[in-house]
Design brief:
single chain, alpha/beta, six-stranded mixed β-sheet, five-stranded mixed β-sheet, 12 helices, globular
């Protein structure tokens, strides 16, 4: 008669279960992806974030031979899209194009925000940075950052600066610069960057920091005066315009980076595969050409870098947001 030892039997059974589970997991990882991936974009079709997202989605679909479906969920400064993705299954089949505003600004601007970046998302990769261009109206007589600072100090709050909306990166970057230089400017928020830049061209406001791709077009057309590039290096589209770093503002925070994130708990194998494909995305000649055309700086990174940048910029911009008393609740 065969005798069994109960404790040993349980251990053997548990071991067999573990091996079976490991085998299933390994098989699932090897098969990933085996169905369409959804890329959620927090802007309407045609917006800057949408253009970046679709470029990545098209490349990934070709590489993975799996459809990557773009779903636009605009509204509430990214909160609708972000909270939606936070609640999706953490299976590697839902990804969000997020950005500094949604990850580092919103937690300081909304008391009852329905998502929390550190709690609800795993980073996949940084994506791109959008440099900004600080411009002045042609009728102001201002031709350099030094002249802007001198005028603003001589005539406190007499100069108005436009933005794409309260708490938007186009707002906060000028507030940060004003804080560092001692300028006192009056903020005039508009419903979108296009309306804000139009107001500068019409001399309704005098200054704005807009994304480089848009600001440089108007600067080269002679409709605004470029003062400084807010980015890592000079821009080929406005090669004679210095960066803030060249003008003495070292380590000025980048206000326009984007990243890819997935619901918290997404399998590491899926994160690793998406990160690896994103690194190859930046090496693709057609992608390089398109990013250069859009004047976007590629940001290849590890998944962990997304959380690091989010924490860093939350600590950088949060105090400014609170100091300005900004709240969208």
């Amino acid at each position: 008669m065969l005798r069994t030892v109960p404790g040993r039997t349980r251990c053997v059974a548990a071991g067999i279960a573990f091996l079976l589970f490991a085998g299933v997991s390994a098989g699932a990882a090897a098969d990933y992806p085996d169905k369409p991936i959804k890329l959620v974009v927090p802007q309407a079709a045609g917006g800057g974030t949408d253009v970046i997202g679709r470029l990545w989605a098209d490349y990934l679909a070709r590489q993975l031979k799996t459809p990557v479906v773009v779903e636009n969920r605009p509204g509430a400064n990214g909160i609708l899209a972000s909270s939606y993705v936070a609640k999706q299954p953490a299976d590697g089949y839902t990804v969000l194009v997020s950005g500094v505003s949604y990850l580092a600004f919103n937690p300081h601007m909304y008391k009852n925000m329905p998502y929390e970046p550190a709690r609800d998302f795993d980073g996949v990769s940084l994506l791109v940075n959008t440099p900004f261009l600080l411009v002045a109206g042609t009728q102001t007589g201002i031709r350099s950052l030094d002249e802007l600072v001198a005028r603003a100090k001589a005539e406190p709050e007499s100069l108005n600066f436009a933005s794409a909306g309260k708490g938007n990166s186009t707002h906060l970057v000028v507030e940060m610069l004003a804080q560092k230089t001692g300028m006192k400017l009056t903020h005039v928020p508009y419903n979108g960057a296009a309306a804000g830049l139009t107001s500068v061209m019409a001399n309704q406001t005098q200054v704005m920091a807009d994304v480089l791709n848009t600001g440089a077009v108007q600067a080269n057309a002679g409709k605004v005066v470029p003062l400084a590039v807010v980015g890592n290096k000079r821009a080929a589209s406005v090669p004679d315009v210095p960066t803030l770093a060249e003008l003495g503002f070292k380590d000025f925070p980048m206000p326009g980076w984007y990243a890819l994130v997935a619901p918290k708990g997404t399998p590491p194998q899926a994160i690793a595969r998406l990160n690896a494909e994103t690194r190859r995305f930046f090496d693709d000649p057609a992608v390089k050409a398109r990013l250069q055309e859009l004047q976007l700086e590629p940001l290849p990174s590890s998944p962990e870098t997304v959380a690091e940048w989010t924490a860093r910029d939350s600590a950088t911009w949060g105090p400014l947001i609170r100091q300005l008393g900004l709240s969208n609740d």
